[in-house]
Specification:
single chain; 568 residues; alpha/beta; 6-stranded antiparallel β-sheet; 5-stranded parallel β-sheet; 23% helix; globular
Amino acid sequence: MADKYEAVIIGSGFGGAINACRLSKKWPGKVLVLERGRRYPMGSFPRAPYDMARRMFWNVPSQGRSGPGVGPEKHTTGLFDIRVYKKMQAVIAAGLGGGSLIYANVLMMPPDAVFDARWPASCRRDKLMPYYRVAKEVLGARPIPQNDDPRRRIVRTERFQQVAKANNRKSELVDIMVFFGNDFNNPLAIGEQARNRYGALQTSCVYCAECDIGCNTHSKNTVDLNYLHVAENRYGAHIVTEHRAEKIVPVNAQGDDDPAADGSHGYRVYYRDVSSAKGAVLSALTNRVVVSAGTLGTTELLLRCRPTLPRLSSKLGQRFSGNGDFLAFVIGGADPAEPNYGPVITQRIDYNLHENFDPDRAFVMEDAGYPALASWFTEGAKPAVLNAKAALKAGKATIRKMAAGEKDLGEQLTALVSDDISYGTSVLLCMGVDKSDGVLTLDKNGSLDIDWPQHNSMPLYDAIVKASDDFRKAARAKVVAIPGWQAFSQRNVTVHALGGCTLADDAGAGVTSADPATFGQVFGYQGLYVADGALLPTAVGANPVATISSLSEMVAEGITGIAPDANL
C-alpha cells in the first residue's frame, strides 16, 4: 500500500460506500475505508437468542452514556447500536454496509415542499434528482413484483390498502431496494440465486420479513453488494473492518500533526482495532478524509476532534432531527395481517406529505413486517402475561394506565393473550417532518448527548397517534400499543437520525459547504468532507436513504470531478 492515501473514508453506510466507490475509481488502490463493525457474508447474521444477545447488540447505554456492550464478553462489533437519551432513543448499525444492513429498503424522494429556506438552493429537490436517478438504478429500487404467483401475495399490503380507503387516504406501493433478479419485468423465482450486475451473488427475495435484522440470503440490496463490492473488487479499495476512527488531525508541510493547519497538506487519521479488548491504535496519512459514520457517529467524532480541528463551525451539532420516526402496533385485528411474510415494507399511506403538505403534520405511514421468531417469542410470553393479568385483577400490582382516556393495562393484556396475536397485528412505521431543532453535544464524560425539544414537534406526534387509532378502528382491532410513548415517559425512537453537520452557504449558517465545487467540505478545512445523514438541514418526512444517497453522490462528484453513472 502507498505510504499516503488519497482518501480515508470513515464509515461504510450509504454515504461512505458511495464515496468509496467513486473515489477509488479515480484513485485505484489509494483509498482506505474504516468500518467499526464486522463483515456479514451470506448466512452470517445470527438468529439464535444467545448469538443475537452476544453478537448483534453492540451498545445498549443507559441514560445517554455510551457503554462497551452487553453480555459477559462485552463485544463491541455487533450489528445494533442502541442509544437511550432523555427524550429520544436512537438505533444505528455497525457493520460493512452500515445502516443498509438493517434498513427497511424504501427509496423515496421527499416532495418539493420539504426543501424549505433552510436548504441551500444548490441541493434542493430539482438539483438532487439526477443523482437520485443514478442511486436508484445502482440500488435496484422497484415495487414488489405483481403477478399470478400466489406466493407473491402479501396480506398486510392488502390490509393497508383497505384501511387507507376506509380513511379516505391515498395508498401506493413504494420502491424497495430488494433483489428479485436483474430483469425488473421478469422476476426470478423466489429463492433462485444469480449474480447482480456488479458481480455479487444474491438470492431472489424469499419473503421472510427479516430485512431489519440482517438478510441472510442477501436478498436485500445492501451497499456491500454494489458500491462497496465494486470499490473493493474492481478498484482495489482497502477496506478494514473492526477498526474505529478516533481522531482526525491536520498535518503541516513536513507531515507532522498540526492542529493549526487547514488540511491543505492532508490529515492523519488515528483508528483503533476493536476486535479485542486491548486493540492497538494505528494511523494513516491521507490527502483527504470523508467522514461517513452516520449522523450520530460523524457528529460525535467531529465534536471530539475540536482540539485538533479548532476551525470547526459553531453550528456543529445543531439542527438534529429524528425524521419524525414513530412506531405503533395495532393489535387484535378482525382480519389477518400476516406480518411475518414479505419484505418488511411494501407500501405507504400519505398524510399531508406528498399531497396537501402540512408543515406541522406531514408524515407517511408504512406497513411493516417482522420475523417469525418474534411471533414465537410473543406466543411464548403468554403465560407471563396471563400471570400479570391475574396479579392486576387480584390487586397485587398497581400500574399506571398506558393511554390516558383509553384502555388500561388490564384490558390491553386481555388483547395480548388472544389466540394468534401476531397473525392479526399490523405494524405502523411513520416518518414525518419534525421541527429539526435538536442539538447534539458531548456530556461531561465525553459521550454524545441529545437535547431534543420534543414539545415543538407535538402537533406531528399527536397527528400520528390519531392516525394510528384511526387505523385501529378501520381494522376493527382491539388496541394500539406505542412502545416508549404510552408507558411511563414519552420518548421518541428514531432509526433515521439526521443533521448536526448541515449544509449551508457559509459557516455562519452551517457546518459543510453547499457550493457544488466544494460540496460537503467542512468549512475552515480543505479536504475534510461529510457524506451521510448529518448533512441534511431538516427532516425529510420520507425514508431518507434517497436524499442521503443523492447528496453523497454530489459530494463524490465535487471531490473527483466525475459525474456519476450507474455503471460504477
